[in-house]
Each structure stands twice: as structure tokens, then as C-alpha cells.
Write a structure and sequence with these properties.
- The protein has a single domain, classed as Farnesyl Diphosphate Synthase (Orthogonal Bundle).
- The chain is an all-alpha fold and 272 residues long.
Length: 272
Amino acid sequence: MSSIEHYENFPVASVLMPKRLRKPVAAIYHFARAADDIADEGDLPDQERLRRLDEFRAELARIAAGETPITPLFQNLAAEIRQHALPLQPFYDLLDAFSQDVVKKRYASFDELLDYCRRSANPVGTLLLHLYDEATPVNLAYSDAICTSLQLINFWQDVAKDYAIGRIYLPLDELAQYGVDEAQIAQGISDEAWRRLMQFQVERARAMMRSGAPLGSILTGRIGLEMRMIIAGGLRILAKLQSARYDMFRHRPVLRPFDWVIMLFKSAPYSP
């Protein structure tokens, strides 16, 4: 599932984003969206998907060398990278994650999954902190926790959707530990073993999100409110998974208007 898609659950971000940052954020989003579409959309053979992602890497190399990229997408991105002194490594990391999605469909352990999230989710937060001029080591660590949690939340929300395209992000060793197999996911069976497995996943994602929550208070103004809304949105999805007894096969959680009211209420500055 898309490394950028978890942010699409939180459209408030585009409303609260300071106007001066909307253009660079749009350029980052369009880069990630286009690369994600190469990895996921249509019926291209895997080798063609990887070749097209390599073309994106070549465009990044042109930016790194101070050359003019070939495509308008990267010409726009290059202008924002130069203007805001954005690091290039997060863009390379995202491309590595998209390439991995083409060839890797299972994860043996949670450590493997975390390594994927480090490249598929965390770079987005890193780039945003650079745009905010808030990319301190402490803030980056909080951001990594939030972004990885958002990615995990997206996975648990979309277990059925991911399985339909041949992917399982639940760690295989944890599936075995809780007595769940792939056939159960294929059939959408939400029994006691499944509920125990998903309760563990949801509680871990919630703890990770809360560990990064102080970032919502460190960042001030509209940016801080945006971050608190993103955090509240992620926690709200987890609460909905729990309320559905982890049966995302039949009750995929989505954020509705009333949820936004609750999230706004809960978006007062975080205090431990």
C-alpha cells in the first residue's frame, strides 16, 4: 500500500498548511504519487515498473548534479529542492520503498517491516520538518515514530485491500505466533485468534503514535495544529478498528465528519 496514502486519510493537512509551503508540499506529493502509481497501478510487468523507477532515480541524479531534469514533474521538484534546501536522500529512500513493493510481498518479522517503513513513510515527515525549519534530531525522532505509526495504521486498515494485490504486511512470525495463516486472510475470517493478533498490532501502533505525539506541541501555530490533527486522526482510525473488533474485512474504518469534530476537540496541545 502506498507510502504516501496514509496522509490522504487526513485532508485537513491541506487546509491547515501555511500558504508558503503549499507549493513545495504539492511537488513532494506529486513525486510520491507518480512513483507509487508506477509501483502499483495498471498491468505493467515488474521489470518495466523497476525500469521506470530507475528513470526517477536518474532525474534525482540530475538534480544532485545541478543539471536540469528532463520532465516537468522533476523540474518543479528541483526548483523546490533548491529554494528550500531539501535533502535528496528522503526522495531516494521513497523510491527504494516503491521498488521494494514491486518485488517483496511478505515480511518475515516486525524488524523487516520497520525497515520498510523507515524508507516508505519516514522520509515524508523528514521533508516536512525541513520545510518547517524544524529538522532537529529530537523532532526527527518524534516524526519517525508518527510516520511509521501512520504507515502501520494504513496497513491494518487495508489488510483485505493489500491481500487483493498479493501483499501481506503482517509479520509472518507474528501470524504464526497467534495461529493465523494466509488462508484466513484470504477468506476474511475474523475469529478470536485474528482479534488477538490485531489487538497486538493496534496497541503497538498506538503506543508508537503516542511516543511521537510531543511533536504536536513542539511545532507551533498552524503547523502544530496540523500535526496534532494528523496524530488524532491516526488514533481515531485505531479506535475504530478496535470498535469493529478488528474485522476490517467487513468494517474498514474511515474518518467521517463527526470524527473530525472529535479530532479537533482532542487536538489541544499534547501534555504527557
